[in-house]
């Protein structure tokens, strides 16, 4: 599995899209500091970009890599190698390479502009951790879709639909329910609903740690009382971890039944 992981990382590092991804975040971060030399504001701006763009890139890369390397994967499957090791090596390789591009693209400008001399080190670290989680989550979800659908066009279509559901449609339905049932106590419902969407959970987690809970509306006070505590942080990261573990377990189960 480690050999396949190394090959996947090397293969992606040779791809120009990995460098485009890295350069995009690098230029974006430098641009934010050029316009306003404020680390806290830069973190909030990057949060809004990362929680939407990172899942999209992870989804596209996951599906694209599966379909583009399908013939090579079938060659590996003909060897005495466990299926789980092949696909886990590819999955971890894709996720790590995307995370590396994200961390370096954002980290270099922040370090140059004095991150370690500011009080925002923890907030910035949380931003990178959340970005890494989103990479691993959506690459796993994308691999599940690709394993379930042999048709490349359908696979890409369902993958984009999955991202749209989490990034746009879920929020629209969620807000509609909150507005329609605003006369009822919705605290527990809001708490559970945020955990069912890794993008919303990541966004809320970062906003609360930046003391920007007012941006969340009338539910901000309740969310602050839970997510703003140490226990809330542990529960949130545990929920994000489950968003990685469950798709991996489903992927391993699918591999045992799939006919290649």
Topology of this protein?
Blueprint: H1 2-14, H2 16-35, H3 39-68, H4 70-77, H5 83-112, H6 121-148, H7 152-180, H8 187-195, H9 198-209, H10 220-227, H11 230-257
Helix pairs in contact: 1-5, 2-3, 2-5, 3-5, 3-6, 3-7, 3-9, 5-6, 6-7, 6-9, 6-11, 9-11
Task: Characterise this structure.
- The chain is mainly α and 260 residues long.
- The chain is 83% helix and 0% strand.
- The protein has one domain (2-257).
- It has helices at 2-14, 16-35, 39-68, 70-77, 83-112, 121-148, 152-180, 187-195, 198-209, 220-227, 230-257.
- The protein is globular and about 55 Å long.
- The two termini are 19 Å apart.
Which key phrases capture this entry?
mainly alpha; 0% strand; globular
Low-confidence stretches: none
N-to-C terminal Cα separation, in Å?
A: 19 Å
Tell me the structural class: mainly alpha
Q: Provide the gyration radius in Å.
A: 19 Å
* Morphology: globular
How many structural domains?
Answer: 1
Nutshell version of this structure?
The protein is mostly helical. It is built from 11 helices and no strands. It has one domain (2-257).
């Amino acid at each position: 599995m480690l050999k396949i992981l190394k090959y996947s990382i090397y293969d992606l590092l040779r791809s120009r899209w990995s460098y485009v991804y890295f350069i995009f975040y690098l230029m974006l971060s430098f641009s934010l500091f050029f316009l306003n030399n404020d680390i806290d504001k830069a973190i909030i701006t990057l949060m809004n970009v990362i929680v939407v763009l990172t899942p999209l890139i992870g989804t596209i890369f996951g599906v694209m890599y599966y379909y583009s390397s399908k013939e090579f994967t079938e060659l590996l499957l003909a060897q005495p190698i466990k299926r789980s090791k092949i696909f886990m090596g590819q999955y971890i390789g894709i996720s790590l390479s995307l995370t590396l591009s994200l961390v370096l693209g954002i980290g270099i400008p922040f370090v140059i502009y004095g991150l370690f001399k500011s009080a925002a080190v923890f907030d910035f670290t949380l931003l990178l951790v959340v970005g890494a989680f989103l990479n691993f989550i959506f690459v796993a979800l994308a691999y599940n879709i690709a394993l379930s659908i042999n048709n490349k066009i359908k696979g890409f279509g369902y993958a984009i639909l999955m991202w749209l559901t989490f990034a746009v449609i879920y929020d629209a339905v969620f807000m509609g329910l909150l507005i329609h049932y605003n006369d009822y106590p919705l605290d527990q419902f809001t708490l559970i609903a945020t955990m069912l969407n890794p993008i919303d959970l990541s966004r809320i987690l970062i906003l609360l740690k930046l003391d920007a809970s007012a941006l969340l509306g009338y539910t901000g006070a309740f969310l602050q009382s839970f997510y703003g505590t140490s226990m809330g942080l542990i529960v949130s990261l545990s929920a994000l971890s489950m968003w990685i573990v469950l798709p991996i377990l489903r992927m391993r189960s699918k591999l045992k039944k799939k006919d290649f």
